[in-house]
Design a protein that fits this description.
single chain; alpha+beta; two-stranded antiparallel ribbon; 6 helices; 12% strand
Length: 483
């Protein structure tokens, strides 16, 4: 296989975390790194009102506290050649994106750097309780890592070994945006904070990368591939702000704004799964003996799949994706709706990109929130809203959640607690709809029609997906076989 410019040094990791050296030095100067980042500038005023849901009541010297990274760039980052611009294979593409994120974040344990300008940023207004409610009203970012609560996942959807289980586990996640994404977050929130309805659609620039780390309360006793996992201690006990409980890494999602996908959505979504039983993948191109012991588990993640469209109209054999069927078999089959891509914790009745297609908003805080639609209707171009008359947020559900959260806080009586598609409701008397009874192979699919749902568990409006026969092959990203 030919050597490509973004692969790491053959000698691998050359420094330990103790001296705060880079964990994954690139073999050639990164063109983006050669440009001095702009001096930090205060974020939009209303962004500073956001924080974690609750702070601890005593000191925790053993545990750092999360700080929101919102000193967004004030000028558009220059156009550069990114490490994933010339892959041989879809798996190389995914590893190139994750290496890019690891280089800036792994040695700092994914915290905002204390002594240098940030190059990765958080979406604001995820800390308020309105941004991620469960049935008891507890939500928002926890104070140790800035994690927000995802939906519960049935254990039977995580592993074939739990196929008869009726149990569920909680999941928590934190996402970060690179500089192009951070600049876009600034422009959006400057207008939201100024009460500007901002009627223009949001379009993230090419090169935007979003990385989402997803942790679960499941253990390796229940889900075997979680053996030897990354473990974080987090404040996920709503009754005790000083109580830290363990969570384990299960999934890493990536989203990349890539012009090669403009024929469909303009975005490439990928998901990695953790598996501590497997050897470190050779595509990391590192000397595994030089990985510090405490960081070694981070390299036991494996590309599960990559997708750039929703395959509208197809009821089987989707083509706008690549995935690893052997790896998928360790979780469940199918991963998503009728063979589409979704990660381990995600809803097998949906797909990640169709879920994010619902990232849209109304014109202002007093407007009625939209009714969620079927994200499989069509592939949305950048800036195109799924619902006519609404404003696109370019596949960013964190923007959607944050904006509605802020508006709810500002005008609680004018807006319902309809935040996003994560079954967010106040004062509900049971688990969010679609989570209690949740077959891995939906009966509706077996009957030949589909009840589509949001990727993270909440049902969208039921809608039949028409059976379309003889659909011509779609353009393939990277010109590679589908599977």
């Amino acid at each position: 296989m030919r050597t490509i410019h973004y692969l790491m040094l053959a000698t691998g990791i050359v420094a330990a975390v103790a001296v705060a050296a880079p964990i994954m030095p690139p073999p050639l100067p990164d063109p983006a790194a050669a440009i001095s980042p702009p001096l930090p500038s205060p974020p939009p005023a209303c962004v500073l009102l956001d924080d974690v849901f609750q702070r601890p009541t005593r000191q925790h010297p053993e545990q750092r506290q999360f700080q929101l990274s919102v000193d967004y760039p004030t000028t558009p980052p220059p156009t550069v050649s990114y490490p994933w611009s010339d892959p041989n294979h879809w798996r190389e593409y995914m590893f190139a994106v994750l290496r890019y994120a690891y280089q800036d974040n792994l040695s700092n344990e994914w915290y905002k750097p204390a002594s240098s300008a940030a190059t990765w940023f958080h979406a604001p207004w995820m800390g308020h309780k309105y941004s991620s409610l469960n049935r008891s009203g507890f939500g928002g970012r926890e104070w140790a890592h800035g994690l927000t609560k995802e939906h519960k996942t049935p254990l039977r959807d995580l592993s074939p070994t739990m196929s008869n289980s009726k149990g569920q586990v909680d999941n928590w996640a934190v996402s970060i945006y690179n500089a192009p994404g951070g600049y876009t977050l600034r422009k959006v929130w400057e207008k939201i904070c100024a009460d500007n309805a901002n009627q223009q659609a949001i379009i993230f620039p090419p090169g935007t990368v979003v990385v989402k780390l997803i942790f679960t309360q499941a253990t390796s006793n229940l889900v075997p591939y979680l053996a030897n996992d990354v473990e974080w201690k987090a404040n996920i006990d709503e009754q005790h702000p000083d109580n830290l409980l363990p969570l384990r890494l299960i999934q890493i999602d990536i989203a990349v704004r890539d012009t090669r996908a403009d024929a469909t959505t303009g975005w490439v979504f990928g998901t990695f799964m953790f598996d501590g039983r497997r050897p470190i993948d050779s595509l990391w191109q590192i000397d595994t003996q030089k990985i510090p012991k405490d960081l070694r588990p981070w390299f036991h993640v494996y590309p599960l799949g990559l997708t750039w469209g929703v395959d509208p109209g197809r009821t089987n054999n989707p083509v706008e994706l690549h995935y690893d069927p052997k790896l998928a078999a360790t979780i469940r089959s199918p991963l998503g709706l009728q063979g589409r891509l979704n990660g381990p914790i995600d809803n097998p009745r949906s797909s990640c990109i169709a879920c994010h297609a619902q990232a849209e908003r109304v014109s202002g805080p007093k407007a009625k929130p939209p009714t969620e639609r079927n994200g499989f209707e069509r592939n949305l171009k950048p800036g195109e809203a799924l619902t006519p008359g609404l404003i696109s947020l370019d596949f960013s559900l964190q923007l959607k959640s944050g904006i509605y959260s802020y508006w709810n806080k500002q005008n609680a009586n004018a807006m319902s607690p309809h935040i996003n598609n994560v079954a967010v409701r106040q004062n509900i008397s049971g688990p969010p709809a679609g989570l209690r009874q949740f077959p891995s192979r939906p009966r509706a699919v077996q009957r030949g029609h589909t009840r589509v749902e949001g990727s993270h568990g909440a049902p969208s409006r039921p809608r039949a997906v028409q059976r379309v026969m003889g659909i011509p092959p779609q353009p393939q990203l990277f010109n590679l076989p589908v599977r």
